[in-house]
């Protein structure tokens, strides 16, 4: 995945003898790369993605933004050990997610929240729902941008701590909570930069003037050569 957006900033024009030469626009742009960290995991896991570093040939890097995307589902089981039916509320299945990149380490939480219902005596009920999306966006400090510049790749590592997930809710003392989960995660790196100036391109009048000068030069050279032959 690659996205490039450009916004014009300025134009420099040089005037020489009535002819114009235009230097290329200085522009700001962004480019993004994405990769999968892990897919549909059901237990504690670690995944990684190698994403391209910023190519300095594009220009001057001014910012790096890291984005983590977590999605999936969680199933919460509620067991009632009492002799009568019990209601519960605020049930949740919660899991830790950690994204690590050069000079950046961010912990996030994902989970299915606000589950409620009634459980009959001695019965286990299961509830499932989507995991709350964790779209964390983190800006790398300007002093650390150099870690993301080069010809190779940058490694992004993530852990999904599902086995130690927190399953809880509000109910009678005889109501117990447990659960399972299924998670996937991606990483995105976005580089913001100022594009390298484009090479100067002669304006049409410049080209015409140069061609005219060359033409005059050829005619003059032929004229001088002819005169020299006649004087010989």
Write up what this structure looks like.
This protein has one helix spanning 204-231; strands at 4-16, 19-41, 45-52, 59-80, 86-101, 104-119, 124-130, 134-139, 153-171, 175-195, 201-202. With 232 residues, it is mainly beta. It has two domains: 4-199; 202-232. The strands form two sheets. Strands 1, 2, 4, 7, 8, 10 and 11 form a seven-stranded antiparallel sheet that branches. A four-stranded antiparallel sheet has the order 3-9-5-6, with no helix packed on it. Strand 5 (86-101) and strand 6 (104-119) form a beta hairpin.
- Proportion of beta-strand residues: over 45%
Which runs of at least 5 residues are low in confidence (pLDDT < 50)? 1-23
User: In the residues, how many domains can be counted?
Assistant: 2
For the sheet with most strands, the description reads: 7 strands, antiparallel
Can you count the helices? 1
**How much helix is in the residues?**
10-25%
N-to-C order of helices and strands: EEEEEEEEEEEH
Task: Calculate the terminal CA-CA distance, rounded to whole Å.
Answer: 74 Å
Class by alpha and beta content = mainly beta
Radius of gyration: 33 Å
Outline type: rod-shaped
Q: If you average the pLDDT, what whole number results? A: 79
Secondary structure tally: strands: 11
Highlighted features:
disordered N terminus, seven-stranded antiparallel beta sheet, four-stranded antiparallel beta sheet, 2 domains
């Amino acid at each position: 995945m690659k996205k490039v957006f450009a916004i014009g900033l300025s134009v420099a024009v040089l005037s020489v003898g009535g002819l114009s030469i235009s230097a290329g626009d200085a522009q700001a742009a962004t480019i993004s790369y994405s990769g999968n960290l892990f897919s549909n995991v059901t237990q504690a896991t670690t995944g990684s993605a190698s994403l391209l570093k910023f190519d300095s040939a594009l220009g001057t890097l001014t910012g790096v933004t890291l984005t983590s995307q977590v999605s999936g589902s969680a199933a919460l089981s509620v067991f009632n050990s009492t002799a009568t039916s019990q209601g519960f509320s605020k049930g949740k299945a919660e899991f830790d997610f950690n994204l690590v990149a050069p000079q950046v380490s961010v912990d996030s939480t994902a989970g299915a929240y606000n589950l409620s219902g009634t459980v009959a005596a001695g019965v286990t009920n299961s509830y499932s729902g989507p995991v709350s999306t964790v779209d964390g966006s983190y800006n790398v400090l300007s002093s650390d941008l150099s870690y993301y510049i080069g010809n190779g790749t940058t490694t992004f590592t993530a852990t999904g701590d599902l086995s130690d997930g927190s399953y809880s809710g509000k109910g009678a003392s005889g109501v117990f909570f447990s659960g399972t989960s299924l998670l996937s995660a991606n990483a995105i790196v976005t580089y913001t930069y100022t594009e390298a100036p484009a090479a100067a391109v002669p304006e049409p009048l410049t080209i015409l003037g140069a061609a005219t000068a060359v033409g005059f030069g050829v005619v003059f050279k032929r004229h001088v050569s002819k005169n020299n032959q006649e004087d010989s």
